[in-house]
Automatic annotation (TrEMBL):
Residues the entry annotates as binding FMN: 15-17, 68, 137, 169, 231-232
Protein purpose: Catalyzes the synthesis of 5,6-dihydrouridine (D), a modified base found in the D-loop of most tRNAs, via the reduction of the C5-C6 double bond in target uridines. Specifically modifies U20 and U20a in tRNAs.
Official protein name in the record: tRNA-dihydrouridine(20/20a) synthase
Active-site residues from the entry: 98
CDD domains: DUS_like_FMN (cd02801)
PANTHER family: FMN-LINKED OXIDOREDUCTASES SUPERFAMILY PROTEIN
UniProt organism field: Paraherbaspirillum soli
SUPFAM superfamilies, sorted: FMN-linked oxidoreductases
Gene3D superfamilies: 1.20.120.1460, Aldolase class I
Length: 336
């Protein structure tokens, strides 16, 4: 069913604006080898009229990695998807779930759920342009449209265009009156809608997304759907993913890195990035990478000390990656 050469999307990390950039993904890849990673949403306009390398460049170690696109013009999406494949991405994902007003002004995101036929046209155009998977991430409804039939018909229509993988954020999107943050918290979760989609469309890959925080919750959902996508929990508590390769992918080829080993594995990357882009005010700042690592010690003694050490603005300004080792040393006596 799936064309990718990697293990299935049993577990993935959601596309999150301002968070899942290439540095974050490289960090996550030190913790889990097989979990699928997604870029921040990139608009078709940014690719067709902007700096393509800035938006699409990534590290080979990030595979499997998917490019999420934002747009609603089939031709523009096709061209952007083709660029994504040329740059080496393993999947193209269409954003039909973001409820922000800025995205709505561009006539894409969650508002596209009201135009299933257009989404189908977009999917078909992209599928005609690339040989890698084209997937859709969406909500279960918009505003006060709360019936299961709405999302069922949306998935059915888009599936007819050849989409085989649907990532279901199991909440409605409220297009007016709620911020993106509130849209992640206030509309009630209806996991049973995703479960029902999996039953109604057994030939499709249905992946559930929405407030999943523990392996126990993942295990429960995997009894009903094909995969689970983590959101902010993967960012705030990334070491949760250390067991994923063995637990969900049956990987026996390597033992998980310890938290200290994750830091050590990141150091060569940080040094190379700083050398490539410079350490002055016009180049890459150390904090651009280390900010994604603040949650590495979540849940163990000394975590607060670790975060504080990595948040020292004066030391961050020096641009010395040894700050990570210092932070580790400062919290270790507390963790002993």
């Amino acid at each position: 069913m799936k064309s990718n050469t990697y293990r299935g999307r049993r577990i993935s990390v959601a596309p999150m604006m301002d968070w899942t950039d290439r540095h974050c993904r490289m960090f996550h890849r030190q913790i889990t080898r097989h979990t699928w990673l997604y870029t921040e949403m990139v608009t078709t306009g940014a690719l067709l009229h902007g700096d393509v390398p800035r938006h699409l460049d990534f590290n080979d170690e990030e595979h499997p990695v998917a490019l999420q696109l934002g747009g609603s013009e089939p031709a523009d999406l096709a061209q952007s998807a083709k660029l994504g494949q040329q740059w080496g991405y393993d999947e193209i994902n269409l954003n039909c779930g973001c409820p922000s007003e800025r995205v709505q002004k561009g006539a894409f995101g969650a508002c596209l759920m009201a135009e299933a036929a257009l989404v189908a046209d977009c999917v078909k155009a992209m599928r005609d342009a690339v040989t890698i998977d084209v997937t859709v991430k969406h909500r279960i409804g918009i505003d006060k449209t709360e019936s299961y039939e709405f999302v069922r018909d949306f998935v059915g229509t888009v599936a007819e265009a050849g989409c085989q993988t649907f990532i279901v954020h199991a909440r409605n999107a409220i297009l007016k009156g709620l911020s993106p943050k509130e849209n992640r918290e206030i509309p009630p979760l209806k996991y049973e809608f995703a479960y029902q989609l999996a039953r109604d469309f057994p030939a499709l890959e249905i992946i559930l997304n929405g407030a999943v925080k523990t392996s126990a919750e993942i295990d429960l959902h995997l009894q009903h759907v094909d995969g689970v996508m983590l959101g902010r929990e993967a960012y705030h508590n990334p070491y949760l993913m250390a067991e994923f390769d063995a637990r969900y992918y049956g990987a026996t080829d390597a033992t998980p890195k310890s938290r200290a080993e994750v830091i050590e594995a990141m150091l060569p990357y940080i040094h190379s990035q700083l050398a490539l882009y410079g350490r002055d005010g016009n180049g890459l700042r150390l904090n651009s990478i280390t900010r994604h690592m603040l949650g590495l010690m979540a849940g163990i003694p000394g975590a607060r000390t670790f975060r504080q050490a990595l948040s020292d603005s004066k030391k961050l300004a020096l641009g010395d990656p040894a700050l990570l080792l210092e932070a580790l040393t400062r919290m270790q006596p507390l963790a002993a």
